[in-house]
Amino acid sequence: MNVILLGPPGSGKGTQSSYLVKKYKLNHISTGDILRTEISSGTKLGKQARKYMIEGNLVPDQLIIDMVSKKLKKFDSVLLDGFPRTLSQAVALDLEFSKLFMKINHVLYFDVPSDELIQRLSQRLSCRNCASTFIKSEKIVCNSKPSCKEPELYQREDDKPDAISIRMKNYTDLTAPLLDFYNDKNLMKKIDANESINQVSNQIDKIMQI
Ligand code: ADP
Ligand code: ZN
Fold first, then answer.
1. What confidence tens digit (pLDDT) does each residue in 43-69 have?
2. Which of 151, 96, 153, 144 is nearest to 124 (CA)?
3. Which atom of ligand 1 is nearest to 33's Cα?
4. Is the CB of 89 under 6 A from ligand 1?
5. Ligand index nearest the alpha carbon of residue 129
6. Which residues, 6+ apart, have CB-to-CB distance to 18 below 8 Å?
7. Catalytic site residues?
8. Mean of the pLDDT values across residues 193-210?
C-alpha cells in the first residue's frame, strides 16, 4: 500500500506518520526529515537545500524529485510525508510509480484552520535526534520512543514567524492545487485534523480499512 500525506505545515502529518508506519508497516519517506539529515551531515544536497529551507521556501523540484526517486526504488510500500508539494512533483511521482509498477492507494488531506496552524507551529519544539515534535512547555527530554532520550529539543529555524508566513503562502500557492489534482483521480480523502491525535488516527484507520 502507498499513501500520501497532504496538508499545510503544522497539520500533524509527522505525528500521524509514526502511528501509520508502525500499524500498516509502511516505509516512511519524509522529505523534510531527509533534508534536515542531509544538512546536519553537511552533504552537497544539504548545502544546496539549506538556504531555501531556513527561509521557509521550497527546495527546487529537481533536487527533491531525484532524492525521492532514489528512495522509492528501495521499498514497495511507502508513506510519503511532505512530497509531492508542487504539481510538477506530483506528475514526476506518477511517472516514477508507473515505472516501478506501483500505485497510489490513498491521498490523506489533513484539514486544519489556518489560525490554528500558526499557533501550533510557533509553539512547537522538535527533537534533533528523531524529529518528533512537542508543544513548548515543561518537556525537556524527548520521550517519543523508549530508545530516544535526546535532551536537546529546539525550535526549527523555519518555525520562526517570518519563515512560517512564507511557508503558509507557498502552501497556498504551490501545494494546495494538488487537492484538485488528486480529487480528479478520486484518491483524495479529507481528514478533520483539528481533532485530538487519537481521533485523527481513528479517522485514518477507517479510510485505510476500506
Ligand atoms: P512542514 O511540513 O512543517 O513545512 P517539512 O519538514 O515537511 O515541514 O519541510 C521543511 C522544509 O523542507 C520545507 O519548508 C522545504 O523547504 C523543504 N521541503 C520538504 N519537502 C519538500 C518538497 N517536497 N519540495 C520542496 N521542498 C521541500
Ligand atoms: Zn527524539
1. 999 999 999 999 999 999 999 999 999
2. 153
3. 6
4. yes
5. 2
6. 28, 132, 144
7. 13, 85, 124, 156, 167
8. 94
